[in-house]
Amino acid sequence: MSLLSDFSEGAFNVAKDIIGTKNFSINSGPMIEAVKGEARYDRASELNGFQAGETLTIVVNASTFVCKYSLAARSYLGQFCTFDGEEWRVGDIEKGEVFVTITLISRSEVS
Questions:
Q1: What is the CATH number for 74?
Q2: What global pTM score does this model have?
Q3: What is the pLDDT along the chain (111 residues), one digit of tens a residue?
Q4: How many domains does the chain divide into?
């Protein structure tokens, strides 16, 4: 790792103790700590009206993610997952050297 990566990982470890973490797992796999980011609620246009949706961004430590979920990141797209006891699907994964940012999408419509 580079000095910047070491610094970023150290800062993340300190910050997550202050911000707090919640448990995250994919397909009832191993639990890992994740920091909650932004929630988004929208209404996307569909053929017959609007589709309500909800997304949630979470951040996990890249080395922890790769250790617990060793398949290629793209293989987890669309999989069912759990964050803080709530059920979601994996919608998007951004894998960096230090962090993995995962966008969770709702399993069902939001009213």
A1: 2.40.10
A2: 0.83
A3: 678 778 877 877 787 788 899 999 999 899 999 999 988 887 766 656 556 588 999 999 999 999 999 999 999 999 999 999 999 999 999 999 889 999 999 887 544
A4: 1
